[in-house]
Design brief:
With 355 residues, the chain is α/β, with parallel strands linked by helices. It is 41% helix and 10% strand. The protein contains 17 helices and 7 strands. It has helices at residues 4-11, 13-18, 31-47, 94-99, 108-120, 129-132, 138-154, 180-188, 198-203, 225-232, 236-239, 249-254, 266-269, 286-302, 311-317, 324-330, 343-350; strands at 53-59, 65-71, 78-82, 125-127, 157-161, 208-211, 217-220. Strands 2-1-4-3-5-6-7 form a 7-stranded mixed beta sheet, with helices on both faces. A hairpin with a 5-residue loop joins strand 6 (208-211) and strand 7. Helix 1 (4-11) packs across helix 3 (31-47) and helix 15 (311-317) packs across helix 17 (343-350). The longest helix has 17 residues, at 31-47. It is globular. The termini are far apart.
Length: 355
């Protein structure tokens, strides 16, 4: 009978070899201790073949919401919401749902929309990240982030709620589909296309439908494929469900450019599903170390040990909010969008403060 520590050593040797204690921890634990705990939280339940729990919302009579827990593989069909987070205090949380509060919060409107739309599509259950995850539990948050891509992939419907796209001024006597030219400029500028987490929420589900702030359907990622490609640069084949392994690591990294996250590590953690990677979350490590860990996991998955061609990926990812023309002038030898970025430019980019 293996001990927990022996299990992690035997099955997660590559993880432990990567996460050496390189910085101090405020709690007094070593980095390796914390990594061991993270590995344990993510991996040991799988070793025991325990079923995964997914918490879903159910729209009850009277318009109230309730949380229901399901164990895989008994998870029913469900819809899932994709959105942009509001300011602190605006979103309905797990505690709000438990206590039956939160109706006065601005975020309640999109939860109500998701439940109503799911019911219209014949779905009894739906999932919203703001309130279906108990974020006070680091173990639950870690497993949720590592499971997020699969949850979106397995959703029967994904509803994108665009809080900054309105069609109220576009509706007259014509059909909404004929009014695309009126709301399309706002659609193209939507904040949703700039957030890090929404990348996997766009790619993973088979069915992605876009809605205005009024809850009016604008189209789906098939009918709006041309616009989405022009906005994001994501290949139409990827939007149409082609396996992500068909696309190079560099191309998938390029999809993350111009996207931002509130916490700097999330710029990397939001890419785990895009590369089919599971790894512990270490908030406080910074994006540089998080990205290095991700790249090592990608290389381990590919069975490669040579790190030199992969270094350009780190630099390319951090071009998101930089002036590329200025960088071209400063580094005339750099071929942007390729893996030939110099190590000096990489160091320059990785040592810049996060903004």
């Amino acid at each position: 009978m293996l001990t927990l520590y022996e299990y992690c050593i035997e099955n997660c040797a590559s993880w432990i070899s990567v996460y050496q204690p390189t910085y101090s921890q405020p709690c007094g634990c070593s980095t390796q201790d914390n990594v061991f705990i993270s590995i344990l939280l993510i991996s040991f339940p799988r070793a025991l073949k325990s079923d995964q729990i997914m918490r879903l919302l159910e729209l009850k009579d009277g318009g109230e919401f309730g949380l229901v827990e399901f164990f895989s593989p008994e998870i029913p069909r469900y819809a899932i919401l994709s959105h942009t987070w509001g300011t602190d205090g605006e979103e309905v949380t797990f505690k709000d749902i438990r206590k039956g509060t939160g109706k006065s919060k601005a975020g309640y409107q999109k939860i109500h929309f998701c439940g109503k739309q799911a019911a219209a599509d014949g779905l009894q259950y739906f999932w919203v990240d703001t309130c279906c995850i108990d974020k006070s539990s680091s173990a639950e948050l870690s497993e949720a982030i590592n499971s997020m891509f699969r949850w979106y992939h397995d959703a029967h419907k994904c509803y994108v709620y665009l809080s900054d796209v309105s069609i109220s001024s576009s509706i007259e006597n014509d059909q909404l589909s004929q009014q695309t030219s009126r709301w399309e400029p706002t659609f193209r500028k939507s904040r949703w296309f700039t957030r890090g987490w929404t990348l996997q929420e766009l790619i993973a589900p088979a069915s992605v439908e876009f809605f205005s702030v009024e809850g009016e359907r604008l189209g789906d990622k098939k009918s709006l494929g041309r616009q989405i490609y022009e906005i994001t640069g994501i290949a139409l084949q990827a939007l149409q469900g082609c396996p992500l392994s068909y696309f190079s690591v560099n191309e998938r990294m390029s999809w993350a450019t111009r996207r931002e996250t509130k916490r700097e590590e999330d710029a990397v953690y939001s890419l785990l599903g895009v590369f089919d990677i599971h790894m512990p979350l270490i908030y406080g490590e910074g994006r540089k170390k998080a990205l290095i860990r991700l790249e090592k996991e990608i290389m381990l998955g590919q069975g490669k040990s040579n790190t030199s061609p992969k270094r350009g990926l780190s630099a390319y990812m951090f071009f998101a909010n930089e002036n590329r023309e200025k960088l071209r002038e400063e580094n005339p030898g750099i071929k942007f969008g390729t893996t030939t970025c110099s190590s000096s430019l990489l160091r320059h980019l990785l040592t810049r403060p996060f903004r």
